[in-house]
Amino acid sequence: MGQIFWGLLLVFFDIRLHITTASGPAVNLIGYILILDGVRRLSPRSEWFARGRLPALLLAGCMALQFIASLFRHSAADALPLLLRNAAGLALLLLELLLLYTVTYGMADLEMGTGGGEMRTTRLTFLWKIMAALFLLTLITGWAAPGLAVLFRVCALAACVCYLAFFHTSWKVYQDRSA
């Protein structure tokens, strides 16, 4: 579960190292590889984590392509027409939401397996719904009302921080119960 947490941290905050222009996709690639490893390790414990392997693999693959393109000082999206760029952005967003969905419900499945509600995964489920709505609203309003999109983006960032805090708490409770 630790790999998933650290991977989500890297991906959520889109950390830039400012070493090269390739650092953004590289950090996201590392984040998705960590998440992929985490869901792979947890897949025997819950089928939800097994379902998360494909979205994590696809996202890691997309980031690998973006990283390779950035090494040549090109964005992978630059070669695409605007409509295809927007469609690709929507597809990536939906894959990220699907990955988060599987991780969230995997955590809930683990909680049910421990026989208690100490992990409080209902908070994760609620925050996943809030983040999904905010990310989609950001995408929708980005074209028509950029100022409103910024507001939604800030709210989504706050929801991501809360999600990570609750995920960390659930992870620690699970770790304590498994020990």
Topology:
Blueprint: H1 2-12, H2 23-42, H3 47-71, H4 82-114, H5 121-144, H6 146-178
Question: What does this 3D model show about the protein?
Answer:
The protein is mainly alpha-helical and 179 residues long. It contains 6 helices and no strands. The protein has helices at residues 2-12, 23-42, 47-71, 82-114, 121-144, 146-178. Helix 1 packs antiparallel against helix 2. The longest helix is centred in the middle third of the chain and has 33 residues, at 82-114. It starts with a helix and ends with a helix. Mean pLDDT is 85; it is low at 16-22.
Percent of residues in beta strands?
under 5%
Terminal residue distance: 14 Å
Could you describe the largest sheet, including whether it forms a barrel? none
Number of helices: 6
From the structure above, extract its key features.
179 residues, mainly alpha, 82% helix, globular
What's the gist of this structure?
The protein has 179 residues and is mainly alpha-helical.
